[in-house]
Amino acid sequence: MYIQTEGDQTHQARREMQDVTHRSLGFLHRENINRIKASNSFFPFMSTAQIRAAVTQFAESVEDTSKRAPCASCGRLLSITDIHAVGKSNCSLRLLGGEVDHCGRQGNTWNLCSKCLTSLPQNSMPNFSAKNLVNVTVCLHYPSILEDLTPVEE
Ligand SMILES: [Zn+2]
After folding, report:
1. Within a domain: residue 20?
2. How far is the CA of 116 from the centre of ligand 1 (A)?
3. 58: CA distance to ligand 1 center in Å?
4. Number of structural domains the chain divides into
5. What are the start-end ranges of the H helices in 6-113?
6. How far is the CA of 37 from the centre of ligand 1 (A)?
7. Structure pTM?
8. Structural domain includes residue 19
């Protein structure tokens, strides 16, 4: 029977430490090679024409978004060509009883989508409407103490 001496235990501990160090260095080496490969393949070449097309597409997208307005009744965000401007005395607006989204106001007129403009006079309340207390826009009126909320806090 062999009895381990203190020197044997020290030698064994040293070998285990070298083994762990060797494996760690191998792991770091492989990670470094993978990082270099990823860095070399990142951001593929884009031609000037592709960059120009992407910038144009982005500008058009921003412009399209800026040409939208919310319906004062249902809060849907629509192209301004699909919005109907109605005055305060319009029967559709009166049916809402003042429960309108103020983001849908343009000076003295209010924006209504075609659906709300036709369904309100028939006493058919849109499911998503300020009158039904289901406003889908983010344009809500908060108490003054909550006016400084960030979108995340909302
Ligand atoms: Zn609507």
Report:
1. no
2. 4
3. 28
4. 1
5. 6-41, 48-66, 91-95
6. 53
7. 0.51
8. no
CA of 69 to the centre of ligand 1 (A): 11
pLDDT single digits (tens) 43-94: 778 899 999 999 999 999 888 878 888 888 888 888 888 999 998 888 777 7
Written as six digits, the tokens of 72 are: 């004062």
Cα(146) to ligand 1 centroid in Å equals 27
**Structural domain span for residue 129:** 69-146
Cα 123 to ligand 1 centre (Å): 14
CB burial string 56-94: b at 16+ within 10 A, e below:
eeeeeeeeeeeeebbbbbbbbbbeeeebbbbeeebebbe
The answer to whether residue 136 sits within a structural domain is yes
CA gap 83, 39 in Å, rounded:
49
In a domain, 125, yes or no: yes
> Rounded to the nearest whole angstrom, what is the distance from the C-alpha of residue 83 to the centroid of ligand 1?
9
Collect all residues with Cβ–Cβ distance below 8 Å to 106 and sequence separation of at least 6.
69, 85
Our measurement of the distance from residue 90's CA atom to the centroid of its chain's CA atoms, rounded to an integer in Å, reads 36
Cα(139) to centroid(ligand 1), Å = 14
Q: What is the pLDDT of residues 12-53, one digit of tens each?
A: 999 999 999 999 999 999 999 999 999 888 877 889 999 999
